[in-house]
Specification:
single chain; alpha+beta; Alpha-Beta Plaits; Pop1_N; Pop1
Amino acid sequence: KQAEKAVHQKKEQSKTKCRKARRRHINLVAEFNHRQRKNIWLETHIWHAKRFHMVKKWGYCLGNNPTEKSYRACYRAMTKHCLLQDLSYYCCLELKGKENELLKQLARICSIDTGLTFQEACCLSGRFEGSLNLYRADRYPEDMLGPVTFIWKPRDGSENRQLWIWVHPALKQDILRELKEIFQCSEPEEICITEPVTTSIQEEKQGEVVTSLGKKRKKEDKEGEKAVPVKKIIGDGTRDPFQSCSWIAQTTGIAISDRSMEILRYRLIGPLSHSVLTETLKVASVQTV
């Protein structure tokens, strides 16, 4: 009986794939995509997951505090070297249209009494990034929405301008709703689907690999339906994947687009930040025909 039991256990253990098979690229990608169905990962997630305690906030999986006592190392980097932070979870709202029309409506949700505005000369040229507090239209000093940062695209000789507004994911829905209201952008311009349904045979096989990685993984979801394999998720945790991500006003032509997780954002702190950027970014040679 003991011999039969040992043989039976060996057969059950053989069904579990070895670590080398589980660490193959196709299996890893399928597993990572499955784990991102509820909380989106940043591009630096793997690096942070090995060194930080991760928390799930605002639809993202973010590093909260380090597992090791690295506070002295971080302080040393900020004061003497360079410290990099991943702020890609911040949401980017893009505005396109005529400069006069943009400034006219944006003046309704900010005030010169609080400091800089969208009309500041140094920021309007596109050379510097500005920060301010937003309020509901014509409601200053009441009904504050929250702090944001913004940067204008430098002028190219045209009257149309491009503005990027960076907001915290907890404030994105309120600020986006207010911007669409003051610019009267109600009609969707395009639909962004961030979780396409795969239909090819190869992608179906990839989905079957996801369900067979562990014993606890089931081939059916909670509703009892067949699990749908997905590709690499592109999007953010603050946007419905089947809702529009761009709106346009028919009267003024102002367009508002949600560019969250489409533009990566990093913050460099320290006296050697400029040197790090200089060594990292290389100027491309432009050949004119």
